[in-house]
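Incident log, structure service

09:12 report received: a user says their structure output differs between two submissions of the same chain.
09:20 pulled the input from the user's history:
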Amino acid sequence: MTSVSLPRVAFIGYGEAGGILAADLAARGIAVKAYDLLVADPEAGQRLLEKARVAGVDLCRTLDAALADTDLVFSTVTAGSALEVATQAGMQLKPGQYFLDLNSVAPATKKAGESAVTRGGAAYLDVAVMAPVPPQRLATPLLLGGTDAAALAETLGELGFNAKVVAEEVGVASAIKMCRSVMIKGLEALTTECLSAARHYGAEERVLASLHASFPHMGWDARQPHYLISRVAEHGRRRSEEMEEVAKTVADAGLEPRMSLAISAAQRDLVERMADLDIPYAEPFDWKGLIDRLARH
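09:34 re-ran on a clean worker, output below:
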């Protein structure tokens, strides 16, 4: 692809990350289409249509329509759906089209996606999203991998992406993300368990003071506890799926994924308990209030 003309872009998955990136590209004058399975749902579909209308994005009713006459296809779905989407798209994509897999999945899953996409002649890029998308939006750090990564990096930069090529082989970028997630999602799960127990004993302030004394730059005396537990409360189900892919990554390295599986269970447990008690995630988030409501049942 040359960087002379503006590429035509499509997003498969129009949730938080896909919606933000699509809106930012549309604001730059890029022709952006999107497709999401929820478009078929009467209530959720109407919300997505309004979201797309405001953003200047063409929300398609079918995957075929989203992929047609498109240069760059960004897959921003859940980890559990990533390979299925790559397989479905691969049956329709043609030479000259690029499939950018932004999903948080194991290197083996990315390699299976590569096989599915390149079978028809399209190009596949392994893309690792290295930070939450909402704060930095298009400037969120991305790591690229694949034989076509270097050729597309300049175009992505011109579109406003903060993308860096790390390997010609698919799987390296995703391995960086997956291994990092053991630590990041683990810290979220540890904080949730630590402070839930501390709150029960009325010891949370002293625990936080001790953490701050040991790690004074992490913000334990400020917003760090709220932020870490809020990530679980808002995205625990999605993060649990990601940690299942992390467990595959660890197992494929010949290691026992004890921590990864425990983190997956902990992430899912909090949101399932919230769902059982019909407690929605809401801003402003208060971890103490949430823990107290859960403890009463």
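09:41 both user submissions now match this output. Likely a transient worker issue. Closing.
09:42 reviewer note: The CA atoms of residues 22 and 32 lie 6 Å apart. The longest strand covers residues 123-129.
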